[in-house]
Amino acid sequence: MVEQYKQQHPYLLALDSIIFGFDGERLKVLLVKRGVEEETWSLMGGWLQPDESLEQAAARILFDLTGLTNVYLEQLYAFGEPHRDPIVRTISVAYFSLVKIADYESTISEQFQARWFSIYDLPPLLFDHGDMVDLAIKRLRYKAAQHPIGFELLPEKFTLPQLKKLYDAIYNTDFDKRNFSRKILSTNLLIKLDEKQKGFSRKGAYYYQVDSIKYQQLTSSFLNFIPNSEAIP
Predict the structure, then answer these.
(1) CA 29, CA 18: separation in Å to the nearest integer?
(2) Alpha carbon of 233 to those of 61, 134, 138, 167, 229: distances in Å?
(3) What CATH number belongs to 149-231?
(4) For a FRET experiment, which of 81, 99, 222, 233 has its CA 20 to 30 Å from that of 143?
(5) 3-state secondary structure of 1
(6) Structure pTM?
(7) Using CA atoms, how far apart are residues 108 and 57, in angstroms rounded to an integer?
(8) CA–CA dist 85, 92 (Å, integer)
(9) What's the maximum distance between 2 C-alpha atoms anywhere in the chain?
(10) Residue 61: enclosing H or E segment and its boundaries?
């Protein structure tokens, strides 16, 4: 049995993190700069340590870049093409996470030269990181249609127009205002607050917040949260 292990080839195991954020208008991904002369960017990544599980390593890498804990984090896919890393055979397990940009900005570390980019206007990316981002966007769209995970990208209180802008950004479309509001409110997931957003309209839009108990109950349920999501490109 031991001899069989010795006959196998050693490989490196990396983890890469696709970190999504929303600035109120655009869905963005956090990238770090690689190299000095060339404008090449990459996802934040690191190596699995001997005493870590995959989930622990992914959470550590996320914290190293953002300073945040207890954020939405989900394993995406394992990328293992033989020549994806030209230096040494490396298998990467990718995770995607959803963070509130305002929270990140209060804990930013400059050592990584990190920057937010719109998912629709990305710079040249290292190795197969572009494929990772593309797959993460597809997974996010699927999950956001079926589960209320989009709220992870919003502040604690928000208006329905702000919520619609988020889902417009995720799906790169313009949902019908009335249908969207009716669908969202029909989930009974939101609590209407006695407070309005000022300065954007004469009447002002009411703020809402997520019912945390119902959110926990519905996160693993299939809601068909977004109407006609299968028809969205």
Answers:
(1) 7
(2) 31, 13, 10, 13, 9
(3) 1.10.10.10
(4) 81
(5) coil
(6) 0.88
(7) 20
(8) 10
(9) 76
(10) helix 54-66
pLDDT of residue 147: 83
Higher-pLDDT residue of 196 and 14 is: 14
Going from the C-alpha of 4 to that of each of 1, 10, 12, 70, 80, the distances in angstroms are 5, 13, 19, 40, 22
Amino acid at 176: D
Closest CA to 92 of 133, 42, 41, 129: 129
One-letter amino acid identity for 54? Answer: L
More confident position, 149 or 202: 149
Residue with more model confidence, 5 or 120: 120
> Are 68 and 105 within 8 A, CB to CB?
no
Scan for tokens 């702000």, then name that residue.
162
Distance CA 140, CA 134 (A): 10
C-alpha to C-alpha distance for 204 and 160, rounded to whole angstroms: 11
Q: Write out the DSSP string of 70-87.
A: S-EEEEEEEE--TTSSSS
Structure token digits, residue 125: 């990316």
Task: Give the DSSP letter of residue 125.
Answer: B
Domain ranges of the chain: 2-146, 149-231
Task: Please give the pLDDT value at position 153.
Answer: 95
Mean pLDDT in the chain? 86
Instruction: Decide yes or no: CATH 3.30.450.20 for domain 2-146.
Output: no
Q: Which two tokens stand for residue 129?
A: 């990181």
